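Quick one - inputs below.
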Amino acid sequence: MLAYIDKIREISRRLLQEGTVDMVMGFRKGTVPMMNEPCFVKTPEDVDTFVWDSNCGINLANYLTNRQEKIGIIAKGCDSRNIVTHIIENKIKRDQLVIIGVPCKGMIDRRKIQALFETEIENVIEADGNITIKGRGLEKTLNKKDVLQDNCALCIHRNPVIYDELAGDLVEEQKDVDRYEDIRKIESLSPEEKWRYFDDLLSSCIRCYACRNACPLCYCPTCFVDESRPQWVGKSIDSIDTRTFHFLRAYHCAGRCTDCGSCERACPMGIKVRLFTKKLEKDCLELFDWEAGMTLEKRPPLDTYRPDDPDDFIK
Amino acid sequence: MQNPYLPYPVRIEEIITETEDKNLKTFKFVFLNPDDQEKFNYNAGQFAELSVAGKGEIPIGIASSPTEKGFLRFTINKVGLVTSYIHAMKVGDIMGIRGPLGNWYPWEVMKGKNVVIIGGGFAFTTLRSSIIYMLDPDNRPKFKDIHVIYGARTPGMLLYRDELAQWEKRDDINMHITVDGTDDPDWKYNIGFVPTITDQKAPPGNEETYAIICGPPIMIKFTQPVLDKLGYVHDNIIMSLEMRMKCGIGICGRCNIGKEYVCKDGPVFTLTQLNNMPKEY
Amino acid sequence: MSGLGFKVKVYMMKIITINKEDWAKGLERLCDSFRLFGPVKQDEFHNFRQLVKGELPDLNLLNTRLSAKSMVYPQSEKMFEFTLDENRDDHHILKEIHKDYSPKAVIGIRPCDARAFLLVKENFDTPEYKDPYWIKSYEATTWVGYACNTPCSTCFGTTAGCGPFHEQGLDLLLVDAGDYYLLKILTQKGENFLTAAGWSSKADSDAARHEIETLKRAAEEKITARISTDKLKDKKTTELFEAPFWEEVAFACINCGTCTYVCPTCWCFDIQDETIGLSGIRMRNWDSCMYPIFTLHGSGHNPRNTKMQRVRQRFMHKLKYYVDKYGDGIQCVGCGRCIRHCPVNIDIRKVCDLMNNFEA
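Output:
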């Protein structure tokens, strides 16, 4: 991690000194344990602000939308895939970007970790694949592997797919990962059980839209839930409206979602919103052999048509 | 405890299409309960929330004058969900009115002073209320010279054209009507933008002269330097602002400029006040 | 009704001791005369909800995830009902909805949330307009505070006009003294609650007072986070508004409404009509200054069109506009929820320092 930080700072300093970019987007140390804050740096003197550790789960591609400057951006595997998607969807131009790739071994789940202890965690130290937790009368070392964000544990694209610089050696990708066990379980439920399952899942939603706003795909100038003419959904916390929001958002992300986990990470109520997007991710993989954000060369399945597209869902 | 969110039920009594583009209509409302009319005691410059069950509410300046009894008038521009719906309503339909809301032009302060009314486009509504109020025989002696500078894009876009013509004929009010342009050979009034006409026709500014401005932001932006040039003091330049509003009573939190809620602490502010507020409107 | 909630009524405060068994029995008795609400753990966090008879509030918590504001001001609240059926005489006329304002008690509210109601009261209960829903609901409630022996790490209450044993806005203060509770009765409403609970109302000696004082000091010492607000009042609004730091403060913000929804002092709402068939309601829902449509005009103009403007609004409102408008300090009680739950770690303590130390 420390080596990453030095390299990130070194590359950022060079890019800013040479004037290759107007700003670099990265992370600075957070004010609470297991949180870092996305930030930008515009001068070489300020690059020491940048940090890197297992608390950089926010997807920085979200900050690129429609920007005009030349930007250096620090990108994990998932960020890089969303950068690809952003480029394909004309939200940023490739030649505006210098992508500083960061091979990633996963981000830790702060809520999962806190839930393991009664005492509040006040300090976290990360070293050699271990996470040491400290709080009042508490000190415990955990294996980072056991406390990863759910999406990171299942990640099969840890290395950036597109980059101009690298902040570290590429890492080995995880093999033989069963990405869709949870989805298959839901698929196997009866309609009534599914209804109940989703009702429970979303019962604590407060419609704050943190999931939507943390998502690099959700850049619509006016989200359908905010339209007033026509008004597609009500604005209260009525369960039908809430469900409509989550389902439609997921469908809108079909073939685009990289399972970066930003939505789930952002949710203040700890709702497993990825279950929706992952179902569509699974469908895209099975029906179109498609994984989002892997290449600039191909159009995503929902904006292409092929005569041999599967059509047996039309009855 | 009186519920300030509960509208008074009203019936649409009359609908007048004001402008050639048909986007502005004046609605005359009467209260279903006569008591409510007594409660609805307003001053020229205030607004009200017009309420349509099932659609929502919209804040609109009151175009009738407190001196006109027995009804309320609002001129409504068709822009959003509620106003579009209201435009499609018919005489006899039932809706609601909540108010009066906000502050008003400083009538007490302006007693014994010259008043210059400067308006543009469809923002002339509370100015119409003000003119009717000042011209009322009981009130006219309270004010010195009254000037009105009112402009629209074309003659067909002027509001209250019959009344404008009547006021033109009076000698106790100086009318300066203008349009941005027209090909009407019979047009006998001014041609030119409001700031230009203000420069030409408005009386010079002094402690005894107040300007009330209401119009689109661009008009306000260019009229302000003209008034500065004419020597108007900022305490005497009175403006009425627009903001997105919901509650209209300073509670729901969206219409603030700095610490002031436009719905309750405004919509009327002096330029002196605005100069000390964030430029966020 | 007084506009200010800060006036301390003259009441002879007393402290009683309750063993934890009697605590449960008392709550059961209280169910006959009060609707009881308290923190309940669901999934991995606590929130307030109504307790069924025999159910105890779960007091093993730092604080609830959402503040207690929904106890008075629900996220979605019906205001009026109407019919669009033109065969009915009262069609298109809004009518009041019957609401239950019978006595209720909120047990286990932290002192920060209780004080927050007093700050918010300035908005809902003004000399000119009274918000009937908020006021009636607030007044129907007895507030049984729960002192924080171990404040959250993000708490900065002691420098935000509050504190772990703060009593403003409470009718009673419950203190966990280990094997038993100490209950400090602060108002006549509190006394009535005590009577209904049937706990022995024998006042304790100075020893109890001393015990609370000791726990209070220990709790306060655990709070290390501080803010400075002393210079906010004298700053010029327009200068703070134009300060250069807003772009940097706002950069990380994703404009979700989390901070405003978890905040005990955020009060903004939207009014919406909803219809099903020919019947409908007018309701209000929490809204957030973080959303672009919050201020979007019908014409398309938006005075707070950019993220920076919206972030600035939130902090300026809490730390400057409120200070100037009401003269009661900042619109924040230091509960730290926005810090804990902001997905991108925007920290009001940092922003407050930037504002307080800003020199134009």
